[in-house]
Amino acid sequence: MLVVDARSWEVTPLAGTAGRMGTTGLCRIGGEILAAVQSVEPAVVVLDARTLEVRGESPLPGALDVHSIAPWGEGIAVASSGTDEVLGYRYRDGRFSDRTVLWAATGAGKDTVHVNGLTAHGGRLICCAFGPRRSESDLWSGSERGYVYDVGHGRVLLEGLGHPHSVTFFGDQLLLCESSRRSFRSMERPIATLDGYTRGVARLGEASAVVATSRGRVRSRSTARLLNPADEGRDAGECALHVVELAGTVRRTVPLAAYGREVYDVLWVG
Predict the structure, then answer these.
(1) I need a surface site. Which of 47, 99, 163, 197 has the fewest CB within 10 A?
(2) pTM
(3) 2-196: which CATH architecture?
(4) 246 to each of 118, 185, 205, 214, how far by Cα in Å?
């Protein structure tokens, strides 16, 4: 995990988090920051929002391959990619309990549509998923059937997407990354095309965002399509943060290659 100063854009590794595998979703609840980790047993690391010191770690029983997390009800909602579900947990005294299934994309109980991004605002809970893959051995390399789903209303809001991630509310406007198309977009149109597998969005003021990119894979020089970083192919794109105006201008790029190949999530801590 990294801390980036939004004034100087200096990057500093976060003490106490080195060596943790698969840090994914980030959210804030009151005076705490929660960071999902894909360890052998899915868990959430709890940090003090003021000092960024690690307070502890709590397991998420019943979840599998956890991705995004978001404040919800008396606790959090969790994208449990490994079970095709959005789960809810009560959070108290640094522990999670009372697991409930808020939505199941399928009844498979395993990762068949890759539920990943998750956001909540004004009583609405929104998630996104890649859609069905061609076979169990395929990493959604050719997927163009991704969608954004309103959990509370039980309906698809947008479909036909390439690897959607990082659904994020800016006021009442919903923005997201369409990762395989290198795009940061609104529900209506692309906002910016960036050099990498777009994934991770945080609001920065009223009219701009911080959007992350990761190294991805390509299989053909004739296409701009960028595959999942875990897919086969040659490396392409950069691991970086980009300051993007909602009008489409990219104002700044902060390279992160010195710290790793991939970013999953970005959280503004004011």
Answers:
(1) 99
(2) 0.94
(3) 7 Propeller (2.130)
(4) 21, 9, 10, 20
